[in-house]
Write a structure and sequence with these properties.
Layout: E1 3-9, E2 13-18, E3 23-28, E4 31-34, E5 39-42, H1 46-63, E6 70-75, E7 78-82, E8 85-86, E9 89-96, H2 100-104, E10 112-122, H3 134-139, H4 145-167, E11 171-178, E12 180-183, E13 186-189, E14 198-202, H5 212-215, H6 221-233, H7 238-241
Antiparallel strand pairs: 1-2, 2-3, 3-7, 4-5, 6-7, 8-12, 9-10, 9-11, 11-14, 12-13
Helix pairs in contact: 1-6
The chain binds adenosine-5'-triphosphate and thymidine-5'-diphosphate.
The site of thymidine-5'-diphosphate (TYD) has 13 residues, from strand 9, strand 11 and strand 14.
Length: 243
């Protein structure tokens, strides 16, 4: 398969057309951003850590019956995916209160949310991704009621599967964001699931193991990403093997 022209450049990934019908290449770049693009850096190897974790999680979810866009890896930062018509929703699942719901609502950080809370934002940078509700999603024609119900069911199933996977590695899945898209009439999980899109806390120490280390200058971002990628995928990187 050949990589063709650039279709889209986002804040952290680039999407390319290919010569294969219905397939795209997603490249995970080393760019890292936070606060609506207000903080930006390039951190060597960040893209490959996120690509590796996304690949591992997509394969794990597929094995457990979740339909994802993932097809194969080309190299450590490029994956072949199904071309989707993306649904412009950021579907966030929360198991523990942290981040924006603590800033915006009277939750105390660290409070368990049981059952998990789903928050859905409208993916529109020019509007700063406002929160939606079911009626708005349907009135805007973003999904049908049936599709929305399916998206929520799949999001909760992904949460169940991912929480269990991470817990085995001593990691609490605090919250995460996923995106869905359509190919024909089928809804697939798209985009990525990585340290940029999950909030992860070490179960023992409570330490942040995700992009919060970058957002709030909590330590060495790439050492954290390297370590977490190794813990999640079960593979130690060459750097970790040396220790
Ligand atoms: P944000 O960081 O707010 O999620 P972005 O657009 O800057 O937005 P990137 O991850 O840099 O995010 O860009 C990747 C883009 O590719 C996103 O717009 C995403 O919705 C889109 N995308 C992901 N998977 C697919 C797919 N399978 N088919 C088509 N587009 C996809
Ligand atoms: P949230 O608490 O809403 O925002 P912030 O990270 O700014 O405090 O984020 C919840 C989770 O969803 C967190 O793990 C990061 C992820 N997320 C994204 O990956 N992209 C986004 O645009 C948003 C809003 C959240």
């Amino acid at each position: 398969m050949k990589q063709k022209d650039l279709l889209y450049t986002g804040k952290a990934k680039s999407v390319y057309r290919t010569d294969a019908k219905g397939k795209l290449i997603v490249e995970f770049r080393d760019d890292i951003t936070a606060f609506d693009g207000g903080k930006k850096d390039v951190l060597a190897k960040k893209g490959s850590y996120n690509a590796e974790v996304s690949r591992f999680i997509f394969e794990y979810l597929e094995e457990h019956g979740v339909k994802t866009h993932f097809l194969s890896m080309i190299d450590e930062r490029r994956m072949v995916v199904r071309e989707l018509a993306m649904v412009p929703l950021e579907v966030i699942v929360r198991n523990v209160a942290a981040g924006s719901i603590v800033r915006n609502y009277p939750f105390k950080e660290g409070t368990p949310l049981n059952p998990p809370v789903i928050v859905i934002d409208y993916k529109d940078d020019s509007r700063h991704d406002p929160m939606l509700n079911d009626d708005l999603i349907i009135a805007l024609g973003l999904t049908t009621a049936q599709e929305l119900a399916k998206i929520k069911t799949v999001a909760l199933e992904i949460n169940r599967l991912l929480s269990a996977l991470l817990l085995k590695q001593g990691i609490t899945l605090v919250d995460f964001k996923i995106e869905f898209g359509r190919q024909g009439r089928t809804i697939y999980l798209g985009d990525e699931i990585s340290m940029d899109s999950m909030r992860l806390w070490d179960k023992k120490t409570g330490a942040s193991l995700d992009k919060d280390v970058y957002r709030f200058n909590k330590g060495d971002v790439m050492a954290t990403y390297n370590n977490v990628a190794g813990r999640i995928t079960g593979k130690k990187s060459p750097a970790q093997n040396k220790r």
